Amino acid sequence: MSSTETDPPVSSEPDGTDPVSTPLLSAERVGVAFSAGFAPGGTSGTARAVDGVDLHVGRGEIIALVGESGCGKTTLARVLLGLERPTEGRVVFEGDALGYRSRDLKRYRRRVQLVQQDPTGSLNPRRSVYESVAEGLRVHRGTTVDEAERVGEALARAGLRPADRFFARYPHELSGGQRQRVVIAGALVLEPEILVADEPVASLDASVRGEILRLLLELRQELGLSALVATHDLGLAWNIADRVAVMYLGRVVELGSVEEVLSEPAHPYTRALLSVLPDAASEEGPVVLSGEPPDPKRVPGGCRFHPRCPILASGEAERAGVAERCRTEDPLILPGGDERRVACHWAAADAEGRLPAAGP
């Protein structure tokens, strides 16, 4: 669990930043909008894949970014990697705003590395394990005399030992777990400070998932690595994360420590996601949300979750006196930081001030 106090505003100037209190990586009011052709009625549509996200990742911290498919997790991860440029807001690394010139991005990507979801698709079948791991080293630092040593160290840290036995192998000769370890080694060879992992175990067998999650925790302990792990699996978040950010339709709707969010979920959406886990089953059973997530070109007015909200449908929001606000008033964007926060009118009223409401 991170012990950092609530994060102060981050300055983009190198002078005056505090390396202890300044988050390692931040999204500040990040928005990403895509042109989506023509919407009904003949008007041009704009899909807001990410719609104002504040999120900080501290040094040595693991944050789980959870939500349904299509909620914006992958797009936000791409923005944090510098693969996608935000249409609003900015990415800040060590107190400095990310630049998008080629040399700026090249320098940045040595320190912030991606771990992809599908190890089979991300590894070139015609390249040996050695070539796959060494590729990043050659791109970013040129061929060096200690290349074999660096590749061997990365493979060993990723749990492939003795490393030299894997140098000449090809992806088809490895198991799924071994391929994912090669992908992780390819990120580690550059000695990054943070990993951004997009569904890192989704394609793996259940017997292997725990090994990869344990590896990520070991890397944090041994190397001080930070990580942002995008996943739809709250069970994964429980096992690996310090903090959890729950996304819905491009927004973070609940944020807090893993114990706070998963033991006492405040947002109805988080409760619904958690209710389907076997260990979290209640007498009421799983919460079944009605319908599909709305089209990001047509975000509902008021709280964007209200058309599917079981609290509103059951009358609980009406009894709490917030039903009209749910339908008409958009909860403010949650600020980043370590403090527990929820973007929900009903949760704020139900907590009677114990939870900070949305807003600064």
UniProtKB/TrEMBL annotation:
Q: Which InterPro entries match?
A: AAA+_ATPase, ABC_transp_ATP-bind, ABC_transporter-like_ATP-bd, ABC_transporter-like_CS, Oligopep_ABC_C, P-loop_NTPase
Q: Which domain of life is it from?
A: Bacteria
Q: Does the keyword Disulfide bond apply?
A: no
Q: Set out the biological process GO terms recorded for this chain's protein.
A: peptide transport; transmembrane transport
Question: Which Pfam families does the entry link to?
Answer: ABC_tran (PF00005), oligo_HPY (PF08352)
Does the record bear Transport in its keywords?
yes
- Residue ranges for the region (Disordered) are 1-23
Q: Name the SUPFAM superfamilies on file.
A: P-loop containing nucleoside triphosphate hydrolases (SSF52540)
Family matches, as PROSITE patterns: ABC_TRANSPORTER_1 (PS00211), ABC_TRANSPORTER_2 (PS50893)
User: GO MF annotations for this entry?
Assistant: ATP binding; ATP hydrolysis activity
Keywords per UniProt = ATP-binding, Nucleotide-binding, Transport
The entry assigns this protein to a family as follows: Belongs to the ABC transporter superfamily.
- Name the chain's protein: Peptide ABC transporter ATP-binding protein
Name its species: Nocardiopsis kunsanensis
